[in-house]
Amino acid sequence: MLTAYIQTVMRLAKYEILGDGQYYGEIPGFQGVWAQADNLETCREELQSALEDWLVLGLHMGHKLPVVAGIQLIPAEA
Questions:
Q1: Above 90 in pLDDT, residue 1?
Q2: In a 10 Å sphere around its CB, with 0-12 CB exposed, 13-18 middle and 19+ buried, how is residue 59 labelled?
Q3: 8: helix, strand or coil
Q4: Which SS3 state, helix, strand or coil, does residue 35 take?
Q5: 43: nearest Cα among 15, 5, 21
């Protein structure tokens, strides 16, 4: 389920080329999840890594995570 969630969320990502030629990516609805890199593929990889870190922290802290395409991640109770 986690893999499906990450793949689905990554399809929501928005990318743009900045004035200095760098690529910037973010995922709407996932505050603080962004990446910037020299090329699109590296930006995508870094964005996915940022998303994974954000999810692990959110689950660890017991935060309610966004439901995406009917997929809901629920933190385990201690």
A1: no
A2: middle
A3: helix
A4: strand
A5: 15
pLDDT tens column, 18-54: 999 999 999 999 999 999 999 999 999 999 999 999 9
Go through 20-51 and write b for each residue having 16 or more CB atoms within 10 A of its CB, e for each that does not: eeebebbbeebeebbbebeeeeebbebbbebb
pLDDT over 80 (residue 57): yes
CA 74 to chain centre: 17
Would you call 15 helix, strand, or coil by DSSP?
Answer: strand
23: helix, strand or coil: strand
Tokens of 17: 């080329």
Q: For each of the domains in the chain, give its residue range(s) and CATH number, in order of start.
A: 2-61 (3.30.160.250)
Residue 75 has pLDDT above 90, yes or no: no
CB 6 within 8 A of CB 53: no
**pLDDT confidence of residue 47:** 98
